[in-house]
Amino acid sequence: MQQPHGTTPDVPEDPVGEGADPGPGRPVRAGIPEHGRVPKYYAVKTELEALVDQLGEGGAVPTERDLAARYGVARETVRQALRELLLQGRLRRRGRGTVVAGPKLEQPLSLVSYTEGVRRQGRVPGRSLIGLDRRPAGQVLGGQLDIAADDPVWHLERVLLADDERVGLESTYVPVARFPALDREFDPDSSFYAYLRERLGVRFATAEEKIETVLATPREALLIGTPPALPMLLLHRLSRDTGGRPVERVRSLYRGDRFSFTTRLSGD
Fold it and tell me: Which residues contact 206 (CB under 8 A, 6 or more apart)?
């Protein structure tokens, strides 16, 4: 892709070929607009995607200077293309360089703990405790957990890990009256669901879950170790036991570049 500096590289109108299958997860016609004019950064990004496939997971990506020289574009153009691939999770930072990232973690949308979901993919789950404290439930949380506003709840906050990589932040709220010994009995590095199931005999039956995209706050970005501009997937969950009683209210923040969520649908 050698072009004179400052010119728009030539890109075929249909890079995947007439009628060709662009492959799962890839946009039809590789994202080329109908008028056929392609931004320079997108043309570079297309070239970089092919390079990423060649390098494989963990492969070191050339520097911005080298890529700019290779493709005959400005470094800012390369920077924008790299930025998009970082946000998509195709690349990740390692020290002062950039390497090809592995596949995203696929977390099932089901009553399965984070620990179980990560282990199913051959990764090692972990958690790092930020804090475990008591606080009044307040009106909104109290209403969700069917307790009074001034009743205390435990707030358990932990950084989520996969193979020692920070990938998310989880806040769990449960009534102190129902779990009075949580601060003494529970190992915060372990699965909370396993503790409820094996130690206390609590069984989950249903959950209401909502997913939205957000940007992390400066504090959250610092804890997870990501830039504040990185898109996040935010999950709100209210779980109930087999008797219909609320058990927990959970707020989970996952890195958008490292996570995707799956579910199985069926007809009536």
Answer: 111, 239, 240
Count of C-beta atoms within a 10 Å radius of residue 172:
21
Homologous superfamily of 105-262: Chorismate lyase-like (3.40.1410.10)
Reduced to 3 states, what is the DSSP secondary structure of residue 24?
Answer: coil
- Note the pLDDT tens digit of each residue in 184-216: 999 999 999 999 999 999 999 999 999 998 988
- Look up residue 53 and give its two tokens: 């496939």
Please state the pTM of the whole predicted model: 0.68
**267 contacts 255 by C-beta, under 8 angstroms:** no
Residue at token pair 């297309």? 46
> Which CATH number does the domain 28-100 belong to among 1.10.1040.10, 1.10.3720.10, 1.10.10.10, 3.20.20.70?
1.10.10.10
